[in-house]
Amino acid sequence: MGKHLAKKKTVQKETGRPSGYSKELGLKICEHLSLGESLRHILLIEGMPTQSMVFRWLADNEEFREQYRVAREMQMESHLEQIQEIAHDGRNDWEVIESERTGQERIILNAEAVQRSRLRVDTLKWVMSKLAPKKYGDKIEVENTGVQPIIKLTIGGDAN
């Protein structure tokens, strides 16, 4: 009885997410960042690495780290542009409704759209203040006059 040896079929694995640093991917990531997209959203694009891989690249690759830093700075400028666009876009601020009783149309404030716009602006401002606090963070001025105020607390009538 002879044994047949079956030839092994070589199965080519489907390529998954990239694991090693790629200058091309690094530039794509930075380009998307500079246009205002979030890293999380960018990494959902087919062919992009995982977030942990990007963090590894940032830790290990000085060139990518610098490109990423510049892209984040540019992202803040993109956010600033978005804030201005949102603030000046009043297309959905008002809506026309018809009165059920009279049938007449009237224009009312679309509070939901206005609140959504406010939330978007506030979120972008918050992100900017955290990622670029020196440029976009709150500024606190402390004035030192050299005089300390004396606080006197009186409870229940005259203090002697």
Mass-distribution shape = flat
Largest sheet: 2 strands, antiparallel
On the 0 to 100 scale, the average pLDDT is 85
Percent in helix: 40-55%
User: Count of DSSP E strands?
Assistant: 2
Structural class, from secondary structure content?
A: mainly alpha
What percentage of amino acids are in beta strands? 5-15%
Strand order of the largest sheet: 1-2
Number of helices: 6
Strand and helix order: HHHHEEHH
Which ranges are low-confidence, i.e. pLDDT below 50, for 5 or more consecutive residues?
10-14
Radius of gyration: 29 Å
In whole angstroms, how far apart are the ends?
118 Å
Outline the secondary-structure elements.
Blueprint: H1 23-34, H2 39-42, H3 51-60, H4 62-88, E1 94-98, E2 105-109, H5 111-131, H6 133-136
Antiparallel strand pairs: 1-2
Pick out its properties.
single chain, 160 residues, mainly alpha, two-stranded antiparallel sheet
Question: What would you say this structure looks like, in words?
Answer:
With 160 residues, this protein is mostly helical. Helix content is 49%, strand content 6%. The protein is built from six helices and two strands. It has a two-stranded antiparallel ribbon. Strand 1 and strand 2 form a beta hairpin.
Brief overview:
This protein has six helices and two strands; from the N terminus they run ααααββαα.
